[in-house]
Amino acid sequence: MDFQISGKRALVLASSRGLGAGIASALAAEGVNVLLCGRSGERLDANCKAINARGKGKADWVWADLADPEFVPGIVAAVKDKLGGIDILVNNTGGPVPGTSEDMHPDRLESYFQSMVLSVITLTNTLLPEMKEQGWGRIVTVASSGVIEPIPGLALSNTLRGALVGWNKTLSAEVAASGITANMVLPGRILTDRIEELDGANAKRTGKSIEDIRAASVASIPARRLGTVEEFAAAAAFLCSQQASYITGTMLRVDGGSARSL
């Protein structure tokens, strides 16, 4: 299917690896010009070279840290310089450290709130006027299946990503008449470096092997396997398509059926 977004311009946050890198690649495959950002110039450069070698949408990158209070003005300047404007914004952030509710000390909570919530909302608000003026825009925010069913041992993630749910739903109704959609994509167990890190932490906490942790995880998924970055990225890219113009304010689960709630 042709998503009819060739030539559009997209900023993909936290795209040096994992889900962000996958989404940037999927959008570029549709002819979208993408700007990647993150904290590893080496990985970002490699991602851009791989995208540009395909000869479809062009890719460029900029170093950026969502935890930096000056993140928003810096990335907005880069969008103007490297893309010339914005049509698609993919809000993606790294996950916080594992822990219980009692581990959410004020300094840790404040630090991750800056990178996972405040930077996302402030950046979106800053880029919205251009989308409104042109009468077209796509905002896709990557969260976690933990906003549907809180994940044990990830209290900080459950809390902060949950805050984005109410924000996205509110925003979607406010901008719909301007031709802008705002949706969320919720990954379940997608095979990324983040999953490797979480499985390792779980193994250390429980005394089990990583293999046993992984086997138990797969057994709990109706699809009986982990998802791939490409599968997740394809779902996110569809929400940026012209065909998805009447889909807004939703949360799309990409979890192999893991969430048992309706």
Describe the model.
Helix 1 links the parallel strand 1 and strand 2. This protein has two domains: 207 residues, NAD(P)-binding Rossmann-like Domain (Rossmann fold), CATH 3.40.50; 36 residues. The mean pLDDT is 95. Helix 1 crosses helix 8. 47% of the residues lie in helices and 14% in strands. A seven-stranded parallel β-sheet has the order 3-2-1-4-5-6-7, sandwiched between helices. The chain is built from eight helices and seven strands; from the N terminus they run βαβαβαβαβαβαααβ. It is an alpha/beta fold and 262 residues long.
What is shown here, in short?
With 262 residues, the chain is of the alpha/beta class.
Defining traits:
262 residues; alpha/beta; Rossmann fold; 2 domains; globular; 7-stranded parallel β-sheet; 8 helices
